[in-house]
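User: My collaborator sent over this chain with a note saying "see what the structure looks like." That's all I know about it. Can you take a look?
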Amino acid sequence: PIALLVLLAAGYRFYRIAFFPKVFPAMETLKMELDGERLLNYPEIETWAREVIHIHSPYGYELFGYFYPVKDSQKTVIISHGITISLYGSLKYAPIFRQHGFNVLVYDNRFHGHSGGRACTFGYYEKFDLKAVVDWVIDRFGSDAVIGTHGESLGASITLQHAAIDSRIAFAISDCPFSDLDQLFRLRLRKDYHLPIFPLLPLCGWIARQLLNFNYKEVSPIQKIGAVETPVLFIHGDHDTYIPPSMSVDMHRRKIRGVRAIYLAKNAKHAEALVVDREMYQARVDEFLSSIGQIAAVAESRYLV
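Assistant: Without extra context I'll predict from the sequence alone. Here is the result:
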């Protein structure tokens, strides 16, 4: 009995670490982005017209966000941030799309920033929140609106899971996503905690099913990507040791329908592709958007595969 209690306690501890991560307050995220010189365009962004928005999640809480409109534009990009931070982590990507006339919508994922939601489920519930954000854009601009998504890390995997359930988007850009949550947990258990997979992961999964009503093993973008027809650009730092770049490579290979492209950023660690080489990041996104007819043609592509 004592050994069982110890195992249950260890499983519950990992459950809390996994699904209730320490989340930085919104303004602390902004300070981190500014101090890390990732948000270099913030003074410019602060001059843009901005609307504070609240979008109702199908799970009963509110999603907090900012909408930056461009006059007379019917094109919108929705940007999703990574784990533990807030929408301020998405703003560094906004100018990439704004210069092409896209409205920009950034929002706090559930359990992050000013949004509700009692736990982070790595896309299991979040993909339906993103669908609600797409609904908001369509309610505002009509069914002819052009809508794209961009996500970083956790947000990247949410965009891929969302693309599998919502064909209304014109494109998805996925920057350093994980391909399978079970595989990621196994990797992090070994590297971060030096703990055995069994019985911790099975116990963690059982507790999540009981208390959060979801099976984390179903969070697997790679299992759905083969059926996704939406154009997808995968981006990953080739020095990423948190989420291996092989995960993006494998999903790019598995995506057999519709347009696909991949950019492995040289010398970039996790979520550093933009910061390491802003010019190349912009070029890769521009070439992708041009290849699917969302922006004017750019010079002949040198990179897309």
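A starting point for your reply to your collaborator: The mean pLDDT is 95.
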